[in-house]
Amino acid sequence: MKILTGNDLKTGAVIWWTGVSWSLDVNDSADVGEHGAALAAREEGARNVVGAYVVDGAKTEEGVRPAHIKERIRALGPTVRLDLTLKPSDPAAADWVI
Predict the structure, then answer these.
(1) For residues 15 and 49, what is the distance between their CA atoms, to the nearest angstrom?
(2) Which of 11, 63, 80, 84 has the fewest CB atoms within 10 Å, i.e. the most exposed one?
(3) In degrees to the nearest 10, what's the CA dihedral of 93, 87, 81, 67?
(4) pLDDT tens column, 38-72
(5) How close are the terminal C-alpha atoms of the chain, in Å?
(6) What is the pTM for the complete model shown?
(7) Is 70 strand, coil or helix?
(8) Hey, how many other C-beta atoms are within 10 angstroms of the C-beta on 50?
(9) 73-82 long-range contacts, CB within 8 A, separation 24+
(10) What are phi and psi of 50, to 5 degrees?
(11) Nearest to residue 2, comparing CAs of 39, 56, 41?
(12) Could you tell me which of 41, 47, 52 has the C-alpha nearest to residue 9?
């Protein structure tokens, strides 16, 4: 599975391509297949995202999981204070990153 990520141009938030628009939740990610680079260029050109790029991911029981730890950290949020992550009430949130 290939997923597209980048940062919101206005807020800087990490966002994920859903197949139609962008979402803050990695679980909304759509498989972009071979079209990721073209989608990234189009979305950057439309100024919907900055720094868009394709990453490997996998569909698991918990949802979409980026293959690389860097992308899992970006998907979750700060690792130094779990109360500031996108899953603050999940006691196992840190386990998801590693």
Answers:
(1) 8
(2) 80
(3) 50
(4) 999 999 999 999 999 999 999 998 889 999 989 98
(5) 19
(6) 0.83
(7) helix
(8) 14
(9) 73/97, 74/5, 74/14, 75/14, 75/16, 75/26
(10) -130, 145
(11) 56
(12) 47
